[in-house]
Amino acid sequence: MAGSFPSDALEEHNALLDWVIKNGGHMHESAQIARDERRGVHVQVKRSWPAPVARETRIIQTPLGVTMSYFNAIGHRLGGGEEEEEEEEANMTFSMHGLNLPRGFVDAVGPEETTAFFLMGQYLRGTEGFWFPYIRTLPQPGSLTTPLYYGEEDGDLTWLQGTSLMAARAQRMQVWKEKFENASKILGEEGFEDADRYTWDLYLWASTIITSRAFSSKVLSGVISDADLPEDRLSVLLPLIDLPNHRPLAKVEWRAGETDVALLVLEDAVPGQEISNNYGPRNNEQLMMNYGFCLPDNSCDYRIVSLRAPPGSPLAQAKAYQLQAFPDLAKDPEDHYYVFNIFYPLLAPDSPMEHTIFSPALFNAVSVLAANNRELETLEISEDGIQLPLVYGNSRAVLAALGQIIIELITHILKLRASAQGLPQPQNLKQRHAQLYRDSQIHLSETALVIASWSLRRAREHNLGDSWEQTKQLFGSHMSEVPAGKFSDAILSRIYVRILERNPLLSQVGELLEFNDLFALLPSAAQELCRSFFPKLLVRAGRHVSALQAYPGQSPLAFPLFLSFVAATHLSGKSELPPRLSRWAAFLLDKYPPPPEDVAWQLEEEDDEALMAEFDQFIAATKEGHSSFYVEVTQLTGTTDDRNDWLSPNWLRWSWMIVEQESVMLPEKPLQFLAVDPSGETAMLSTQSYLYIPTS
Fold it and tell me: Is residue 5 over pLDDT 80?
C-alpha cells in the first residue's frame, strides 16, 4: 500500500515484471506499473492507450513456476512417474529452489507454518534466491503497518487504546508466538542448519506477508486436484498479481490455468484508471489487522460486536441445543454479530430496515437475551438461526432489544471519544490509519443510532396514521434532533432511503406507553375520571409510604395500578374495554394466571415486598377513612368483595410481577449523544420505563 516501499520501488517493480515475463508471465500491453504519493506503487491503464480496456481482458498472467506455496516446500510433482525425462519432470514440479526443509518438520507443523518458514528461508537466501526479484519488492519489516507492528515507544500503540484492535492484536500475537516457538523448536530438533536464523522477527514478517498478500489454493485448481490439497488452510503467493491495490467491490477475477494464474478485469477500464484488486468484502478491522491500512469510505465496513451469552442464559442454552441438533454448524463458529455501514451493499433486497444496519444474528441474539419467560416459550431454534417469531405479544422483546442495542451504541461512541482525548495529531502512517479506523468505528455507531432510535420513536408515537405525509413529518422531526452538519448529504440521503424505503421489522406503532399515555386507551367515559383518580392516589401514597421516597420520578406503582384496574374491569365485564385493552388483558390473564385466593403472595425482592406491604397498609387505612375516594372507580371495575378487589394485596403483587416482565426500559434522548461538546463534557445516559401494550 501507499508509503510501504523504498524510494526506488518503481525500478524494483519493473525489474519484477521483467523477471515474471522471463519465466513465462505476461502483462497486457495496455497496463503499466505506476507510482504516486496517494496510491503508492500500483497498476493502471496507460494514459496514452487509445481505448478502454474491455472486460475479460487478462491484465496479468503469473506463471505457476514463480508462485510460492506449501507445494514448493515439499517439491510437489504434478503427476507422472519416476521414469519421466528430467526436463519434463522439472516442468512438472513446484521447485524448492535450494531450500529443503526437513520432512519431519513439514509433517509436524502443517502447511500453514511450513509456508511461513519457507518464505523466511527464501528471504535469508538474499540475492542468491530464485524469488529475490519478488521478495525485495515486498514491504520490509520496518515498513509494515499492521497493529502487530505498533509499539509503545513511538506512541503508536496508544492510538489503538479503547478500540477492538487492542484485543485482536493481543490474541493474534499470542497465537503466532505459540506457533513460532513450537515450529522453531521442531526445526532445531530436526538438526536443520541455520535454524537459529529463523527468528521471531522474521517469522512475524513472513506471516504478515502471507496474511496480507497470499491467495487461496483455488488459484492452483487448474493443475492440482482437490484430493491433493491439504485439509489445513493453504496460501499461495502470486508475484505481480498481488501488486494491485484493494478497491471494495472491484470487478476482477483470478482465473486458474494449466500454466499460469491470470488476473482478469470484469469491467471496462479507461486510460489512466487504476486497475484494482478485490480482497473481498473486508471491513476496516480486517483491513487493519491483515493489511495495515483502512478506508475512510469503505462501503463494506461493519463492526463486529462482542456479545457473550452468559452461562446458563436462555441464549447459551439455545445455542448449545442448536449445535447439538445441527453439528455442521461447528464448522463456522463465528456468531456473525455485526453493525453495518449505512452504505453496506451486500444485503438481501427484502431485508427489513433494522436488518440493513444490524445483522439478523445480532438482532435475534439480543432479542433472546431481552425476552421474558412468556416470550421464550415461543423460541424457535433451527439450522438457520435462533429467533422469536413475531407473533402477538413478542414485539416487546424486539423493542427491548433495540433499547439494549442503543445503549451499546452510545457506550461504544463515548468509549472511543474518551480514549481519543489527549491524543496528538498523527505523526506517521500507522497513526493516520489508526485515526481513520477510530473515526470509521464511531461513524458506524452514530449512523446505526439514528436508525435504531427511529424504530423506537415509532413505538412511542401514538398518533401516527397510515398516510405518507404523516410518516415524513415524523421523520423530519426525528432528523431535526441530529446536530446540524453531523453527516454529509450523501449519508443523510442514505439514512432517508434506509428509513423510508425499507419496511420496518415491526409494522405496529405506539406499543410503548408512558403513564400519562395510558388513559387515552380507556373507554371515553372513564378517561377523565382515571386521569384525575390515579395521579391523586399516587400523590397520596407518596406522602404516606416512606419507601416511595426513594423514587423521585414516576412512582413504581403507576403501571401495576393501571394493569390491575384493567384486569379487574375485563374480568367483571361491568365496563366494556376497547378491543386493544380487552385482548391485552385476556392475553395476560392467560399467560399469567390470576393469584390464588387462599394464599398470600409475596414479591421475591425484599425491598419490593416492603414497599408493597406499606402500600397495603395505606390502602386499608384510606379505604376505612376515605372510602368515597374509591367509589367511582370501583363502579367501573365492578369488584365488590375484598379478595377480588383490584387493590387487594395479591392482585397488586400479580400486577407488579407482570409489569416487571412486560415493561421496557429505554434510554432517553439517544440522539443527543451525536453532539460533541468541545469542553469534553458528556451528557448523562438516563433511562425511562415504558409499559408495553401490543396493538395487534
Answer: no
DSSP 8-state secondary structure symbol assigned to residue 279: -
Average pLDDT of the chain is 91
Q: Which residues contact 306 (CB under 8 A, 6 or more apart)?
A: 164, 337
Whether the Cβ atoms of residue 431 and residue 157 lie closer than 8 Å to each other = no
Please state the separation of Cα 670 from the chain's center in Å.
Answer: 20
pTM for this structure?
Answer: 0.89
Which cell numbers in the block locate residue 207?
506471516
Higher pLDDT, 549 or 407: 407
Contacts of 100 (CB under 8 A, 6+ apart): none
Pull the grid cell for residue 453.
432510535
CA 196 to chain centre: 42
Compute the CA torsion angle 670, 675, 679, 685 (nearest 10 deg).
0
Residue 299 CA to residue 283 CA, distance in Å, equals: 9
Q: How confident is the model at residue 229 (pLDDT cuts 50, 70, 90)?
A: confident
Residue 298: name the closest of 315, 311, 313, 279 by CA: 279
Residue 94 and residue 72 in contact, taking contact as beta carbons nearer than 8 Å:
yes
Q: Among 519, 465, 470, 515, which residue's Cα sits nearest to residue 691?
A: 515
Q: What is d(CA 316, CA 328) in angstroms, rounded to the nearest whole number? A: 18
**pLDDT (0 to 100) of residue 261:** 95
Handedness of CA 127, 129, 134, 138 (dihedral sign): negative
Distance CA(392)–CA(694), nearest Å, equals 7
Residue with cell 483470478: 254
Report pLDDT digits (tens) over 323-374: 999 999 988 888 999 999 999 999 888 899 999 999 999 999 999 999 999 9
* Cα gap 197→211, rounded to integer Å: 22
CB 357 within 8 A of CB 452: yes
Q: Which residue has the higher pLDDT, 119 or 38?
A: 119
Whether residue 224 contacts residue 78, with contact meaning beta carbons closer than 8 Å, is answered with yes
Query: Taking residues 224-246, what's their average pLDDT?
Result: 84
CA torsion sign for 68, 70, 72, 77 is: negative
CB count, 10 Å around CB of 161? 15
Angle at the Cα of 558 from the Cα atoms of 556 and 564, rounded to 5 degrees: 115
> Residue 571 belongs to what H/E stretch?
helix 558-572
482, three cell numbers: 441530529
pLDDT at 6: 44
Buried b (16+ CB within 10 A) or exposed e, 43-78: bbbeeebeeebeeebbbbbbbbbbbbbbbbbbebeb
**Contact criterion met (CB below 8 Å) for 537 and 560:** no
State whether the Cα torsion 411-412-413-415 is positive or negative: positive
Cell, residue 672: 443527543
Instruction: Give how far Cα 271 sits from Cα of 31, 51, 61, 244, 348, Å.
Output: 9, 7, 20, 16, 35
DSSP-assigned letters across all residues of 249-265: T--EEEEE-SSEEEEEE
Is residue 567 exposed (0-12), middle (13-18) or buried (19+ Cβ within 10 Å)?
buried
CA distance 414 to 64: 51
Cβ atoms of 537 and 631 closer than 8 Å: no
Q: Does residue 232 have a pLDDT over 70?
A: no
pLDDT single digits (tens) 544-570: 999 998 888 889 999 999 999 999 999
